Amino acid sequence: MKKEMVVNDGRIVAKRLSWSNYMKRYGTLYLLLLLPLVFFVVFRYMPMAYILGAFKKNNIIKPPWEVAWAKNNGFEWFIKAFKNRDFLFSLRNTLTLNLLDLVVGFPAPIILALLLNELSFNGFKRVTQTIVYLPHFLSWIIISGLALRLLAPNDGLVNILLHKAGFEAIPFLNKPNWWVGTYVALGVWKEAGWNTIIYLAALTGISPELYEAASVDGAGRFRKIWHVTLPGLRSTIITLLIMNLGRILGSEFDRPYALSNKLVTSVSNVISIFVYQNGIKGSQFSLTTAVGLFQSVIGVIFLLGANTLAKKFGERGVW
C-alpha cells in the first residue's frame, strides 16, 4: 500500500492507495525512467566488468574473465605504471594543471556572477551574458587554432602588437611556463561564462527582503555582497567545489592535446594523453586500464573526503 498526502478540511492527511491505483496514477513516470535506467545499465554498469582487465594479462581478444591473472597477484600493471617515468610525469602534470584550474578557474564564474548581478541596465546585462557564454560552444580544436594564430611568437596578432609597442615577443605556447599560464587562461575564458549560469540561478533564490534589511542597517554595495549575496551562494559554491575535487585527477584529452607541441611536452602530457599513446597506439590495454582505475579510485576518495569535510562544517554536501 502507498500513501498520498491530501488536503481534507484544511488539514494535510495521508490517504492510502492500492498498488493498482498507485501505478495507474504514477506508472507513466516510472515508464519514463525506464529508458535512462536501461542506458545506465548498458553503457555504465555492464562495461565495468572490463575493470578486471587491470588485473589480468594483456589480451583484448578474450573477455577479461577468461584471461589469466597478471603477475604479482594481479598488480603487475599498477607496479609497471608507477615505475614508468612517463606516467609519473603525466600524473604530476595532471595534478598541476587541475589544481591551477581549480584555484584560478573556480572563483572566476562566482566573481562574474556577482558583477552581472550588480548591473542595473538589463540590456547591457543580457548582451554581456551572451558574449561570455559563447566560448563554451567552441570546441578546443577551434580554440587551439585561434590561439595558434593569435599567439604565435613571430606572426601572431598579439606579438605583432607587442612588437609595435616596443616589447619583446612572448612565447605563449612555446615555453613551458608560458604554456601553462596560457592553458589556464584559455580554460577560464572558455568556461567561466557558462558556469556563471548556475550562480545566477542561485542568486534568484535570495530574498530581496534581505537586501532591504541590509540597506536599512546602512550597508553599502560591498557589505551586501559580503553579508547577503555570498552567504546565499555558499551551498552552491560548496557543492560545485566538492564535484570539482572529485575530478582533481581526471583529465581532458582534447584541450591539452590540441594546445600541445613538442616544445612543451614536459608540462602538457597528462594522463589522458599517456593513455592514448600507450593504450590506443601502443596496445597496452591492461596497463592503461590500471591507470584509468587508479584515476577513478583517487577521484572517489577526494569526492568522499570533500563531502565528509563539508558536512563536518555544517554544510549539506552532495548527498
Radius of gyration over C-alpha positions, nearest whole angstrom: 26 Å
Q: What is the tally of helical segments?
A: 14
Average pLDDT, to the nearest integer?
Answer: 88
Let me know the number of strands. Answer: 2
In a few lines, what is going on in this structure?
The protein is mainly alpha-helical and 319 residues long. The protein folds into two domains: 2-52, no CATH class; 56-312, MetI-like (MetI-like fold). It is built from 14 helices and two strands, in the order ββαααααααααααααα.
Structural features:
mainly alpha, two-stranded antiparallel ribbon, 2 domains, 14 helices
Q: Can you describe what's shown?
A:
- This protein has 14 helices and two strands, in the order ββαααααααααααααα.
- It has helices at 19-45, 76-83, 85-105, 107-118, 122-133, 140-151, 157-164, 176-203, 208-216, 221-245, 254-259, 265-268, 271-280, 285-312, and strands at residues 2-8, 11-17.
- A two-stranded antiparallel ribbon has the order 1-2.
